[in-house]
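Continuing from the previous page...

OK, I double-checked the sequence for DUF2062 domain-containing protein against my notes and this is the correct one:
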Amino acid sequence: MPRKYFRKYLPTQESVKGSRILSVFGKTLHHPNLWHLHRRSVAGGVAVGLFSGLIPGPFQMLAAAILAVILRVNLPVALLSTLYTNPFTIVPLYWVAYKLGTLVTGGGSNGLPRKPLEFGDVPFSEWVPALIDWTASLGKPLLIGLPMLAACLAVIGYFAVLWSWRLYYSIQWRRRRSRLARSAPRSPS
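Thanks. Re-ran it with the corrected sequence; updated structure tokens here:
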């Protein structure tokens, strides 16, 4: 069972309460939904992580943690599900967000930004400012498309987890019923 597997690696509520490092946060991290693996808490954690994953820069996990605590969903799942954005996926995701924003705002003739992204001979330390400058040139379509894409991904992720959770347990119940039916003594006819 996947819950038993993941439960080995997740902290318990008692370990969080007893942690000296986490005592800085007081009782904020003591709510049981932040640590328990149940259907709604995990689905909410995935939704929060998918929503926060599109926040630019290193603020993804911070936003996911804050939203998970506020919404009382599984904190580790929320943090882990932000990792779908990485250097390989961020550009296609931002392109989809830009196209979605262009579709909604009706702006942009060919859907391409006016300013091309060129790193050329720019040192690595200046890549982040160059990327921020290029992203700012995308303007209103990206600004509108990012929250829309984040919300769509969060809703899809939430319902996908609920559906797959239900599917997994319905399969497990069928298997259990068939095992019990096979092992039950048959009455003589």
